Amino acid sequence: MSSALRRAIQRPADGPADVAERCEMCGLAVPVEHRHVLDVRHGEPRCVCQACALLFERDAAAEGRYRLIPGRRLRVPEFVAADLGVPVGLAFFVRQPGGGVVAHYPSPAGATRWEVEAAAWEAVEGTCPPVREMLPGVQALLVNTARGRREHWLVPIDDCYRLVALIRREWRGLSGGSEVWPAIDGFFADLDE
Question: What's a Pfam family in this record (predicted)?
Fold first, then answer.
């Protein structure tokens, strides 16, 4: 019997109260605050324990199936987001490992995607140097120009997934209802911490 299978079978039904999930690499319990890796094949984040995160950090330059999602958040200088063809005030942009940039905007049905024109992206990189350093697949440029806001962030991709989940959970009716916008404001306030 493999060690991973043995751990799965021997895993207790109830874990400690501060354990949110299990490491999706080794099966150990992970605390509420933990790191993630991106499963490149499926485009999904996976929870990892500190030991597994350190292994992936060591191999950060490797082009394997899993890539460690960085934890750094950085507010970047403002630029004209409309130049990227954003039809809404809240969107995130991800550089693809094979080239090109895909834009996503969160909605109550999930994230809608479209390809960003290469010339438009190059113009943003020219006016906003931190964007040039964005890691493919695991970091995103998050833009919030909704409701008079002017926020531009370089964030881990798992933050964007959290934002999509928050919008799906809080959205009510056609306009979003009274809960969604305070929740979005709270999300961006947390980025500042």
Answer: DUF5947
